[in-house]
Design brief:
binds magnesium ion; Rossmann fold; At3g28540-like_C; 20 helices; 3 domains; ATP hydrolysis activity; 515 residues; ATPase_AAA_core; binds adenosine-5'-triphosphate
């Protein structure tokens, strides 16, 4: 009986195949396409559903996954992974978490405002390999949304926006944040060229571990959080959604740590821009275009990156004497800096345009942060409000700063030695980096008391050093002044000058002597 059924089925299939082969031979492609078109039309009159398809790769961009597809994948992974029976797993965040998404040919439902929506995942396998396509022989996956025809408007206008926004938000929450650095302009060419290289960003600094005046810290925190929520506000006032921060202060006061804390707070990527590797203003613009939203573009030590102080420097060089007196090591560092800067043709105006020219409006939700040890060296145009909207001074360690560090490094909120430390911090200037180094236990035996005593000793040494330096400075200054007065006296009694005075008339004599 069974055998008979199988034979019948086999014959039926053979007949169907034969009819299909004959149909394909007799009717050309165009005819078959027309038939399909009319059949589809006919079906659409009676079919009560609407279908929308989202492909993984668009025809015009085979290298980049469609953003809509990625957002839908993320959305369905959290909203429907419980319901789908077959799931695909991908690992993110350095094996820390697993993202589940629907496997191929699965169907799930989603309920939105009382409307039922069906999602299916599928893939299209190309029949022939495309000649000039890198991806031509690969399958193109897609998601298909199905809803009732009467819900079409609400699905296309409201539901889809909800899916895409939610998917984007999930992607941001689960992504690995990155720290980018720009490649040298000369290496941008060829296949697989990239202007930025990246690693996973894993800096542990946060606003809790950052030691600074609590009022100032709160102010910065509020500023950042308000910025991140102000998309509509920026649109309303006609500004592109970006904000500039200038962090200035002596080395070791926490400027770089603050940038990391900012990125961790807002969950942004960091683009660390090395200006000396950028050939010219055009390349600078290219780099800007290739940065993503939700990011911080950082230029560290901006005063060293670009010759923004060219005129002042030139003046100094003209003085000649000053340069000759310089310490040879200092001179060498300066020469090397100059050489580096000469490799780049980026100009001040190029940089100004980078920050707030027309191109800077591409992308959104971006912070631009400059750091410097010498704020007074920067061109005022570069740091005016609107470019660098918020100026934050990172200064030497005060008692409030110390308390945060003591809590971080020693888990201590008060101690009898705090009074001495408070007094000493008011009398000397020590950076948070130096204070942190004293507070860090170097062995198991070093307890709170030992570490605080170490800090007191270090503060006393620094105070003594500062006192000796002040005396030495005063001595050098007095010597210089004495030498200057001596020079002036010599000039007035210079015999050559006297000759000049003698040959000139009385009027001229007065001028020369009083000059
Ligand atoms: N305000 C601070 N809060 C917490 N830690 C700090 C602070 N300032 C400095 N440190 C500690 O000192 C080290 C150096 O700090 P950081 O690199 O942030 O200084 P910087 O101001 O960027 O210095 P530079 O101007 O030389 O780049 C950090 O690793 C951090 O541990
Ligand atoms: Mg730094």
């Amino acid at each position: 009986m069974m055998m008979g059924d199988m034979t019948q089925l086999g014959s039926l299939m053979a007949v169907v195949m034969f009819i299909w082969a004959t149909f394909r031979q007799l009717f050309p492609d165009e005819f078959r396409r027309d038939v399909r078109k009319y059949v589809n039309k006919l079906v659409s009159y009676v079919y009560p559903y609407v279908e929308i398809t989202f492909h993984e790769y668009q025809v015009d961009s085979w290298f980049e996954r469609s953003k809509a597809f990625v957002s839908i994948e993320r959305y369905l992974s959290t909203n429907s992974s419980n319901k789908a029976k077959r799931l695909k797993a991908s690992v993110v965040k350095d094996c820390e978490s697993v993202v589940l998404s629907m496997d191929e040919y699965e169907e799930v439902t989603d309920d939105f405002n009382g409307i039922r929506i069906w999602w299916t995942s599928s893939k299209k396998i190309p029949q022939q390999r495309a000649l000039f396509s890198y991806r031509g022989d690969e399958e193109n996956r897609f998601y298909r949304l199905t809803c009732r025809r009467e819900h079409r408007d609400i699905v296309t206008n409201v539901y889809l926006k909800h899916v895409l926004d939610e998917g984007k938000a999930i992607a941001v929450r689960t992504r690995q944040r990155k720290l980018y650095t720009n490649n040298k302009s000369e290496n941008w060419h060829g296949y697989k060229r990239t202007v930025w290289s990246h690693i996973v960003f894993e800096h542990p600094s946060t606003f809790d571990t950052l030691a600074m005046d609590p009022k100032k810290k709160k102010d910065v925190l509020n500023d950042l959080i308000t910025f991140s929520k102000s998309k509509d506000y920026y649109k309303k006032v006609g500004k592109s959604w970006k904000r500039g921060y200038l962090l200035y202060g002596p080395p070791g006061t926490g400027k770089s740590s603050m940038i990391a804390a900012m990125a961790n707070l807002l969950e942004y990527d960091i683009y660390d821009l090395e200006l000396t590797s950028v050939k010219d203003n055009t390349d600078l613009r290219k780099l800007l275009i290739e940065t993503s939203s939700k990011s911080i573009i950082v230029i560290e030590d901006i005063d060293c990156s670009l010759d923004l102080t060219g005129q002042r420097k030139q003046k100094k060089k003209d003085e000649g004497k000053e340069l000759d007196k310089k310490d040879p090591v200092e001179k060498k560092v300066e020469e090397e800096d100059d050489k580096k800067k000469k490799g780049s043709e980026v100009t001040l105006s190029g940089l100004l345009n980078f920050i707030d020219g027309l191109w800077s409006a591409c992308g959104s939700e971006r912070l631009i942060v400059f750091t410097t040890n010498y704020v007074e060296k920067l061109d005022p145009a570069l740091i005016r409000r609107g470019r660098m909207d918020k100026h934050i001074e990172m200064s030497y360690c005060c008692f409030e700063t110390f308390k945060v560090l003591a809590n971080n490094y020693l888990d201590v909120e008060s101690h009898e030695l705090f009074g001495t430390i408070d007094r000493l911090l008011g009398e000397t200037m020590m950076t948070p980096a130096d204070v942190a180094e004293c507070l860090m236990p170097k062995s198991d035996e070093e307890n709170v008391e030992i570490c605080l005593t170490k800090l007191i000793k270090s503060l006393e040494d620094a105070k003594e050093e500062a006192r000796l330096k002040a005396i030495e400075d005063a001595r050098v200054k007095a010597e210089k002044e004495a030498a200057k007065t001596k020079d002036e006296n010599v000039q007035v009694s210079d015999p050559k000058l006297d000759d000049k005075v003698q040959v000139g008339d009385a009027k001229e004599e007065n001028v020369t002597l009083t000059a």
